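Hi there,

I know you've been waiting on this one. I reran it after we fixed the sequence typo, so this is the corrected version. Both the input and the resulting structure follow.
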Amino acid sequence: MKIAFLSTFYPFRGGIAQFNALMYHAFEKEHTVKAFTFKRQYPNFLFPGETQYVTKEDIADEIPSEEVLDTINPLTYVSTARKVKKFAPDIFITKYWMTFFGPSLGYVAKKLNKNVKRISILDNVIPHEKRFFDGFCNRYFLKNNDGFVVMSDAVLKDLLYMKPDAKYIRVNHPVYNHFPAPVDQALAQHQLKVDTTKKTVLFFGFIRDYKGLDLLIQAMELLDDTYQLIIAGEVYGSFDKYQVLIDKSNAKSRIALYNQYIGDHEVADYFSAADVCVLPYKSATQSGITSIANHYNLPIIATNVGGLKETIHHLKTGLIVDKPEVEAIATSIQSYFEGNYKATFAAEIEKEKQENSWENFVERIIAFSKTL
């Protein structure tokens, strides 16, 4: 089949671009696929991180994409639709994670020929951080697609709330498999300049309010000095409030901070150094961090919000914390180490991740397209 894929690709960086690149490679094994990407993805006020683009330090998957869409220039909506139509795809795929993209992606989908199957992979429908334009943008985008791929029950619930008659498939998030192989834990800890004798907890990924890093920092105060925390990720906005918590914490000396974008080539050190990854989220639909942790067979402790418990099975591949509260998070971390769960959880993760391959993921999408 001919597949047009309009989303974030090289030279953009981050988890969305990584996801799309892996999906592109899985599609191209059996089909003809063309990647279309953005001329401008976000205006600066919507991207408070350091940069949206690959830097010379990054090791990027240089997917051959055509830069066509400027999200704040409607003239490019028209030209993008024209270029996609010229390619004459059987399937048109987008990835949707923020309502800001509703008008641009929705317009392109709307203008395609009626025989094209328009499928969107939904990361979020109802956003964590709400804006006045969410309702309109969501409705416009959703009505201009034929089918949807959801990777959590939480996203499915939001989809059916917004569009009760939506056609969809529910598929687990595939496991990221493009990162470097794990390294020896002591070596990784040495690389990160952390204590090799302590129980090591990892918080990884972009730092945003809903992800609850403040709760985890406070939870560290309730754990004794045999525990240490690695914080690794670029902050969206200001880090000031987290720095205040760290500075006044009795655990300050046991918190290693890497407040920066973590390139793919660096990821192995962080996940290899850790004994457990903690997702102390206050709200969520799903998290790509679970897929990275699964790649490294690293168990996760996560709060019971959104769809996290669908991919982290309590007392099998990780622990689920009942509520996003400081004491509950600290208690679960302590229970994890007292139960000596790392090896048994890691073995279960290895079994499960074989089912969540990129090949299986795209096969399900192809089969779904034939039902639309």
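Quick highlight: The mean pLDDT is 93.

Best,
R. S.
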